[in-house]
Amino acid sequence: PITVGLILILLGSAALAKLQPGPYAQWAPNLETLRQPAIVLLLSAFGLLLLLYPVRRVWRWAWTRYFLTSQRLLVRKGPFLRFKGIYPLIQIQEVRPVQKWRQKMTGSGDLQLHMLGGQVRTVSEVPALTRFNGETQQAWTRVWRTPVPPSQQTPALGHYAGEVDTRKKELRKLGRDH
Q: What b/e string do you get for 63-95 counting C-beta neighbours within 10 Å, with b at 16 or more?
């Protein structure tokens, strides 16, 4: 936003210089009556752009809510808070925070969720990234360390891993390295 603001100031100043009486009379000699409305229009558009461009990120942050439950991460966006993403913690293989240089200045960042199927989902522009990442890591660890009830475990004989190949490499590939 700072770079765009400076470029807008530079362009606005150049356009305002062209609308001064001397330069304006050279490039638009017969349109002297339109000079004042052009100045008002230029200043209005310039002011609106300078105000709205930086504020759009604040609106995006204000209209985004992140909900972390014991089972999933929910992202709701927009003025009416529609669900943008639902990420079950049991399907997440790794949680990785990523910050660009401008995000480091504000403490925000992106949260990359590496899913079990090999996909990478990104939850972008998370404010207070380090705190939210810590809480997400804790919830994710709790989900993965919760013991599976005996009724949901596969029996030792005749389960699908035994039918494929029970070598250590195959067991790891199937997610049964314990």
A: ebebebeeebbebbeeeeeeeeeebebeebeeb
110 neighbors 127 (Cβ within 8 angstroms) = no
Residue 98: C-alpha distances to residues 45, 113, 164, 175 (Å): 36, 11, 38, 27
- How does pLDDT run across 40-71, given as a tens digit for each residue? 888 888 888 888 877 777 787 788 888 888 88
d(CA 12, CA 10): 6
Please, which residues have CB within 8 angstroms of residue 128's CB and are 6 or more apart in sequence? 107, 108
- Supply the pTM of this predicted model: 0.54
Rounded to whole angstroms, the Cα distance separating 138 from 133 reads: 9
Q: Are the C-beta atoms of 64 and 77 separated by less than 8 Å? A: yes
* pLDDT tens, position by position, 4-39: 778 878 888 888 888 787 787 777 777 778 878 888
Q: Which residues does residue 122 pair with via DSSP β-bridges, in sequence order?
A: 112
Q: What is the pLDDT averaged over residues 96-113?
A: 87
User: Helical H runs in the chain?
Assistant: 2-18, 21-27, 35-62, 101-106, 129-145, 160-164, 168-173
